[in-house]
Specification:
It is built from 2 helices and 18 strands. The protein is mainly β and about 280 residues long. The chain has 2 domains: about 60-155, Immunoglobulin-like (Sandwich), CATH 2.60.40; about 170-275, Immunoglobulin-like. Strand 2 and strand 3 (about 70-75) form a beta hairpin. The longest helix has 8 residues, at about 40-45. Keywords: Signal. This is YqxM protein.
């Protein structure tokens, strides 16, 4: 039986997540070196092994303009996926969207054989132009590693009148959890190392946070850890202020010392927490 999952895309670039296929080992010509080993033998030990393909295979179907945006459905036509992958949305004013810019990205969940997921792009303002979804196959896929939907043409700019605040997609991608001054997250296999910051912030004196953690404006860093992380699960700790209200943010890129009214953008924020000092 087919199940459909829906994830709304946030608007941002995915320059950090290109999900390149792991390159196969290239052995050098045999030449004797110390201890009876050849250079090719040493090279093969130091080169990374090719990622094992889970034999999943994604393809697109049903691309359309919806009332609030655009959508495309992706189906797994192979074996069950053993992990998530990502997709991007490209846009151009005219011509082929492949030559345009990335306006959104999101996460494709772990799909079983024959299972589908509807990818939806619903920005506050859907600009006129040509759009195309680009999805990444799982690492080790024997094809090109990417697939494109058909081009989707939006005839006129549309403005969404309803509130449409998308959820953070990166907390799903990194399987993150932030509790006070501790953040745990997992960098998936098959992507490059990524710079991630974990910061604790102090609210301005006299400001009490609302249920959603706002206002963000003029929160400034109390403690921070910025590192580059490879695939695997990582746990990071920062200190919390001894008085007043605090917020802790896990986000992509270098440290942001002071927040603006909008806080961290959706193209960088992964997860967050806030509370009062004990």
């Amino acid at each position: 039986m087919k199940h459909t999952k829906t994830i709304t895309a946030a608007v941002f670039s995915l320059s950090l997540f290109t999900l390149p296929l792991v390159q196969p080992v290239h052995t050098a010509s045999a030449e004797k070196v110390n201890n009876g080993q050849t250079k090719s033998q040493i090279s093969s030990k130091t080169q990374p092994a090719r990622a094992a393909w889970d034999k999943s295979s994604l393809y697109f179907t049903v691309q359309e303009v919806t009332y609030a945006g655009i959508s495309a459905t992706v189906i797994n036509g192979g074996s069950g996926m053993q992990g998530e992958t990502v997709y991007e949305v490209f846009r151009s004013d005219t011509g082929n969207p492949k030559n345009g810019e990335v306006v959104a990205t999101g996460v494709i969940g772990t799909l079983a054989p024959g299972e589908s997921q509807e990818l939806i792009f619903t920005p506050a303002v859907l600009e006129q132009g040509n759009y195309m979804f680009k999805a990444y196959q799982r690492p080790g896929h024997p094809g090109t590693g990417v697939l494109w939907s058909d081009s989707i043409t939006v005839e006129e700019t549309r403005v969404t009148t309803e509130s449409n605040q998308p959820t953070r997609p990166f907390d799903q991608y990194f399987n993150s959890d932030v509790q006070g001054g501790t953040a745990t997250f997992t960098v998936p296999e098959g992507i490059r190392e990524v710079e991630i910051s974990f910061s604790s912030y102090i609210y301005p004196e006299g400001v009490i946070p609302q249920e959603d953690g706002k206002p963000y404006e003029n929160q400034h860093v109390y403690d921070n850890v910025t590192e580059t992380y490879g695939p695997g699960t990582h746990t990071v700790h920062v200190d919390l202020p001894e008085s007043g209200y605090w917020q802790t943010d896990l986000y992509l890129g270098p440290v942001v010392e002071t927040l603006t009214e909008s806080g961290h953008s959706l193209d960088s924020i992964i997860d967050a927490d806030f509370g009062a000092a004990n």
